[in-house]
Amino acid sequence: NGNEIILPTPNYELYDNQYGEIPGEGLTSGDLNPSQGSAAQVVRFLDEDFEVPMTFRANLSYHRYLTDWLRVGANLYYSKTKDMYVMENANLNPEVQFTIAGEGGREVYTPLADYDLANGGPGNFRNARISDQFEDALIFTNGYASRFMAVVMEAAVNLPNNGKVNLSYTRADARGAERFRNEDDQRFTGVSYYNYDFINNAFSPGDFRHKVLVNITTPKIGGTTLGIFLNMIQRGRFSATTRQADLNGSKVREGTGFTAYIFDPYDPQTAALQGEQFAQDLQFVFENASPEAREFLEDNIGEYAQPNGGLKPWATDLNLRFTQEINFFEDHSLIFNIDCFNFLNLINPEWGGYHNVINEELYNIEGFDPASRQIQYSVRTNYGERRYEGDGFKLMMGLKYTF
User: Fold this and answer.
1) What is the Cα–Cα distance from 199 to 146, expressed in whole angstroms?
2) Shortest CA distance to 365 belongs to which of 268, 271, 245?
3) Contact 314/354 with Cβ under 8 angstroms?
4) What does the pLDDT read at residue 28?
5) How far is residue 302 from each of residues 54, 103, 261, 306, 340, measured CA to CA in Å?
6) Which residues partner with 241 through β-bridges?
7) pTM of the complete model
8) Using CA atoms in the order 189, 305, 381, 379, what is the torsion angle rounded to 10 degrees?
9) Pair 354, 389: CB distance under 8 Å
10) Which of 299, 302, 310, 272 is nearest to 190 (CA)?
11) Euclidean distance between CA atoms 257 and 120, whole angstroms
């Protein structure tokens, strides 16, 4: 309407000293999670020492023609990113109040007298806050890092009549780079909330280990060619976590970011700490889970399970293309092709899928003994099971007339 609007001048010193003078209602924990019903403020702010992430990349390639029909090569790739983004809860008391005995000394930031795991321990963080005037004080800062290394070996063979064969093998290793979300704290924790090395040295969720590609186009004979594409890859990561509960007072991932301490089921001390039933159930998991889950657990005995430390099985995808070219007068021709995706499933309905490792929660939370300072667990005996998944085959036909 043309009236001048005068904006108030912020008084940050006053806001720092008198919380009630901060204008506006703000975003509350109740807004983010209405079921929690808390009216305490959630604030987000930028670290004054924040640094822009920096990435270094390098690659080295070498290719050589051994003959006029055979070419081989190798490629090396490396990248490293430091000072990646993270949301850290500055309202969490950094002083350790006590540690969990018998399982690697997990740090707890809630006072022992207030620590309670009933119903997942929803009050543990509130008793671990520095200020009760805030729910979360999430600082946008640096903490995560990532690195990626890979070697790719390849070969190409030229065949008569436009035929060719391309082969490649990739060995990769990707670590760090926990997922970033700007609305909450998404980290995995083991011993300490503040141990970023636990995340940065772990495998990335999207890591893959091996990849084999075979691409064959047969020589054209009588206008007929056959294309074969084989993709074999070992990728996909899984972890070993506890059921939803705030084990250290930091409520990371809303209580789903706590990696499990891997007890040795054959050690008498395990039964002494957790009971005979726990030891028997954990032994059952070690002996009956998928081979990938068993290897992961065995590699982490006596430690907190490495985030994304389990590697899922190989997956194989075979696609075919049949092409028939019919030549007419002069430059006119009719090209008919059939594409079959997931050809293995066409041959046998039980082929063409892959085994996915499911059930990443290893322990239920049964309670806490303040006298021994020991969390009591029970074992989820379906941990690390395999489930066969995948899509069926697809057929696509095409017809093209050229002139």
Assistant:
1) 9
2) 245
3) yes
4) 52
5) 35, 8, 7, 12, 48
6) 259, 361
7) 0.83
8) -60
9) yes
10) 302
11) 13
Residue 27 zone, left/alpha/beta (φ > 0; ψ -120 to 50; rest): beta
Using the CB atoms, write b or e for 223-235: b if 16+ within 10 Å. eebebebbeebbb
Q: Specify whether the CB–CB gap between 307 and 372 falls below 8 A.
A: no
For position 2, what pLDDT does the model report? 65
In the prediction, which pLDDT does 70 show? Answer: 97
Give dist(CA 266, CA 302) in Å, integer.
12
Of the candidates 148, 140, 262, which has an alpha carbon nearest to the alpha carbon of residue 204?
148
Phi, psi of 34 (to 5 degrees): -55, -30
The vertex-273 CA angle with 269 and 276, nearest 5°, equals 80
User: Among candidates 382, 381, 358, which has minimal Cα distance to 282?
Assistant: 381
Residues of the chain with pLDDT below 50 are 32, 34-35, 37-38
Question: CA-based angle 111:115:121, to the nearest 5?
Answer: 135
**Closest among 123, 136, 149 to 59, alpha carbons compared:** 149
Which of 378, 241, 386 has its CA nearest to residue 306? 241
Task: Pull the structure tokens for residue 300.
Answer: 């982490």
Q: Which residue has the tokens 């190989």?
A: 314
Q: How far apart are CA 281 and CA 199, in angstroms?
A: 29
Inter-residue contact 383 to 293 (CB < 8 Å): yes
Quick count: other Cβ atoms within 10 Å of Cβ 146?
Answer: 19
CA 97 from centre of chain:
30
Task: Report how far residue 225's alpha carbon sits from residue 215's, in angstroms, rounded to the nearest whole number.
Answer: 13
Reading the block at residue 66, the tokens are: 């051994």
Three-state secondary-structure class, residue 287: helix
